[in-house]
Design brief:
Elements: E1 7-19, E2 27-36, E3 39-45, H1 46-52, E4 53-60, E5 64-68, E6 70-76, H2 92-101, H3 106-121, E7 125-132, H4 135-145, E8 148-155, H5 165-178, E9 185-191, H6 199-212, E10 216-220, H7 224-234, H8 238-244, E11 252-256, H9 264-271, E12 274-277, H10 279-284, H11 291-296, E13 300-303, E14 306-307, H12 316-331, H13 339-353, E15 371-375, H14 387-394, E16 400-405, E17 408-412, E18 415-416, H15 421-442, H16 444-448
Parallel strand pairs: 1-4, 1-5, 6-7, 6-14, 7-8, 8-9, 10-11, 11-12, 12-13
Antiparallel strand pairs: 1-2, 2-3, 5-15, 15-16, 16-17, 17-18
Helix pairs in contact: 3-4, 3-15, 12-13, 13-14
């Protein structure tokens, strides 16, 4: 390479083990990745890349494993309010979540969403598909934290904590404001579910999504109540009603798909809809999503964490492991969901579901520089014979060393670079305290009944201390 002009790049990750997850499953034991702007410009053998590039900064990848950033295809990043209080309770959506959400205010959501963003980044997630109320605040949190968000304001016409024409208007206003505004934020349309959004609104949202070339994100066949309501009202399954209203399609993410009726899998497959499997939440709730069976019937199946309630974290490494374990148990067969398949669900399949198969989910030239470096020097990573199996079964969020989103390092050495984690946690704790104080005034019996630890050294235990680490 003597005398040859070196290509200038912003970052060069050198001498790392690299899983590209490209079309050929290329892996490098001593690999390098060159990044310029928001894109990956080259990946390959370390000595050759280092000889061809001059980097503004070189990152030592020794002892590190590089992989594409994980994509969480179903989340509610501001729902930390319910962490730890939904377990062992039937129908938590109706009995815990909606009653507590009624006291939420717009000024609460930014701090809660920032907590979810920080938790996700530190667990190697670089992109969230999120669905919640007050979505403007969540978009601000994504931008400030540096995480990629596919975001939709929740629309409900009945039953939930925030319903009515105002929510539909807010959904359209969010799309209008954020479409093309910021590289990290892509607006979605987000009807809640077929039983909580009337059919004419579903049709309107489906038509708008097609017109704007944007995605749709909703809950499908997640509860017995949902199925029963639609059977009584329309004599249809949720999937049948969504097919009739135009909601199903290749840009639609259908979270859960637990209680499917005869022929529903065929409708999902024919339409190109992505069913999003959330294994930890399903397992904790005693629900069965036959993800392996859906794949066998031609349905595209992605992977998500759902929210910091019923789970109770937003750790996609955990979902990788649970996806394999849960499906093997359901089908009573090892390999029902294979390790490589689970990893691709959280990367390539989810990217395809978002219409970004050529931009996310791989480490390859021309793709966004959304990637993660894991420290793989811990004893549980040894030996590295089957790296993908180690990744699925041995990894932890504690291994996350560096995270790039759009060519920018947002986590380095396990520490956030865009925000102060201590301040994020402190602000979230203060916000949670206010939420529970508000709830205890509005619904004292409900709040008193919530599961909580009763500390012996609290002389006057009260609900105002819920939500604080120091209560």
């Amino acid at each position: 390479m003597s005398g040859q002009r070196l290509q200038e790049v912003d970052y060069l990750i050198s001498d790392a083990m690299v899983l590209t997850l490209d079309d050929h499953d290329t892996a490098w034991r001593h690999g390098a990745i060159a990044i310029k702007g928001h894109e990956i410009v080259a990946v390959g053998r370390d000595p050759e890349l280092r000889a061809g590039f001059r980097a503004g900064r070189t990152i030592d990848g020794r002892g590190k494993l590089a992989l594409p950033g994980l994509i969480n295809a179903h989340s509610h990043m501001a729902m930390s309010t319910m962490r730890g209080i939904t377990h062992d309770v039937p129908d938590v959506l109706y009995n815990i979540m909606w009653p507590l959400e009624k006291v939420l205010r717009q000024e609460d959501i930014y701090d809660l969403a920032m907590l979810g963003a920080v938790e996700s980044l530190k667990a190697g997630t670089t992109c969230l598909v999120d669905h919640y109320f007050f979505m403007e605040e969540i978009a601000r949190a994504c931008v400030d934290a540096g995480i990629r968000g596919m975001l939709g304001h929740t629309v409900m016409s009945a039953d939930g904590p925030f319903t009515g024409e105002g929510e539909l208007e807010a959904a359209f206003a969010f799309v209008e404001k954020w479409k093309g505004r910021h590289p990290l934020v892509t607006p979605f349309f987000a009807p809640h579910a077929a039983d909580t959004v009337r059919p004419e609104w579903l049709r309107e949202l489906a038509e708008a999504a097609g017109r704007e070339a944007l995605g749709l994100h909703l809950h499908v066949a997640q509860s017995e109540r949902e199925v029963a309501v639609l059977k009584e009202r329309y004599h249809k399954t949720p999937v049948q009603l969504l097919a009739e209203t135009g909601i199903l399609g290749p840009r639609t993410l259908a979270a859960h798909c637990i209680l499917l009726g005869p022929g529903d899998a065929g409708l999902l497959a024919q339409s190109g809809t992505t069913a999003v499997f959330c294994p930890t939440v399903h397992g904790c709730g005693g629900k069965v999503c036959r993800a392996a069976g859906l794949v066998a019937q031609g349905v595209r199946v992605g992977l998500g964490s759902d929210c910091a309630s019923c789970n109770d974290d937003m750790n996609m490494f955990e979902e990788l492991r649970m996806a394999v374990v849960v499906q093997n148990a359901i089908e009573a067969a090892p390999g029902a969901i294979r390790t490589r398949q689970a990893l691709r669900m959280a990367t390539r399949v989810n990217a395809q579901a978002l219409g970004l198969a050529g931009r996310l989910g791989q480490i390859a030239p021309g793709f966004y520089a959304d990637l993660v470096l894991l420290d793989v020097t811990a004893p549980r990573w040894t030996p590295m014979v089957n790296v993908e199996a180690n990744l699925v079964f041995c990894s932890s969020e504690r291994d996350v060393d560096t995270v790039f989103v759009g060519g920018r390092p947002v986590v380095e050495g396990g520490r956030l670079t865009m925000v102060d984690e201590t301040k994020v946690v402190a602000r979230a704790e203060a916000t949670l305290r206010r939420i529970f104080e508000r709830a205890s005034l509005a619904q004292p019996r409900f709040v008193q009944s919530l599961p909580r630890t009763r500390f012996a050294d609290e002389t006057q235990p009260n609900t105002q201390n819920m939500g604080t680490a120091t209560s």
